[in-house]
Design brief:
14 helices; disordered C terminus; MetI-like fold; mainly alpha
Length: 311
């Protein structure tokens, strides 16, 4: 018997992931990118909001990405913006993971009329223009915060509430696919012999779901979580580009792209103020998508069956 056949399913999935060159390189790129963005406050030679007289300086040894309209170092702004975008993407995807897994698991396990009702709610939400829902939510929240600031709320509190609203809004539109996928997996798992055996031994529904069914959907949930992160990052960038997401003095990649686009005019184009934020966003999204595809290939049960020995 070969060494590959003696490996556990986790070991075989890990080998398949490492053999995917695009996914493996993307994982290393993202790890380095996240580490650089996290450590940059201690390494940055310029504060992110330090206004100077060096407006629109092109890329140079002093400013690798150039400077913006206020003379701020663009490299520092891009890395700070990447921290915000990745944070929003991670938290939004986490919200969608929790809601989607719980909704899909309960619907698939209980079945019957409750399953039908819960999935009809998902169908109705699918029919709604999700991005319009988030735009309306954020617009209403901005109006409430403007009135609250007039009554004495601090700017820091308003920004925190707005960021929380962005997390909730993006997470609320991203869980629908997760719920459908998890429901399908639970429907196939709830009639398996190990679940029937646990039920015969007197295990309660909550114990069966927590200890026997949910661990078997972790793989597929991780795959769709990895694919949800770039979608949420793109949503956030689009909203920030419209001026509804991250507000100054904070910055995200979307708001930096919007600032760069506003500087394009027929007289002179300061190309670096839009090229570098846009390239950073494109590279991050590309790496996240490659990583998600690689995880899907590695954890796909069909791939594992294809590599099992013939009987």
């Amino acid at each position: 018997m070969s060494e590959a056949n003696l490996q556990s399913p986790t070991g075989r999935a890990w080998q398949r992931f490492k053999s995917n060159r695009a996914g493996w390189c993307s994982a290393w790129f993202l790890a380095g990118f996240v580490l650089l963005a996290a450590l940059w406050p201690a390494l940055a030679p310029y504060p992110p909001d330090a206004i100077s007289d060096a407006q629109f300086r092109p890329p140079s040894a002093a400013h690798w990405f150039g400077t913006d309209v206020h003379g701020r170092d663009l490299l520092t702004r891009v890395l700070y913006g990447a921290r915000i975008s990745l944070l929003v993407g991670g938290v939004g995807a986490g919200v969608s993971l929790v809601i989607g897994v719980l909704w899909g698991a309960v619907a698939g396990y209980v079945g019957g009329r409750l399953d039908g009702l819960m999935m009809r709610i998902v169908d109705v939400l699918y029919a709604l223009p999700s991005i319009v829902f988030v735009i309306v939510l954020l617009t209403a929240l901005n109006g409430i915060l403007d009135r609250s600031q007039a009554r004495g709320w601090s700017g820091e509190t308003s920004r925190s509430v707005q960021l929380l609203g962005l997390f909730v809004g993006l997470g609320a539109i991203s869980w629908l696919t997760m719920a459908r996928i998890v429901r399908g997996e639970v429907l196939s798992l709830r009639t398996r012999p190990f679940v029937e055996a646990s039920r015969a031994l007197g295990a309660g529904h909550a114990r069966i779901l927590w200890l026997h069914i949910l661990p078997n959907v972790v793989g597929i949930a991780i795959v769709y979580l990895a694919l949800t992160v770039p979608a949420v990052v793109l949503y956030e960038s689009f909203l920030s580009y419209l001026g509804l997401g991250i507000q100054p003095p904070q910055a995200s990649l979307g708001s930096l792209i919007a600032e760069g686009a506003s500087q394009i005019n027929p007289i002179r184009i300061y190309w670096w103020v839009i090229v570098f934020p846009a390239a950073t966003l494109a590279l991050a999204l590309l790496a996240l998508n490659f990583l998600g595809d690689a995880l899907r290939d590695a954890l796909d049960p069909g791939s594992a069956l294809d590599q099992s020995p013939a009987h």
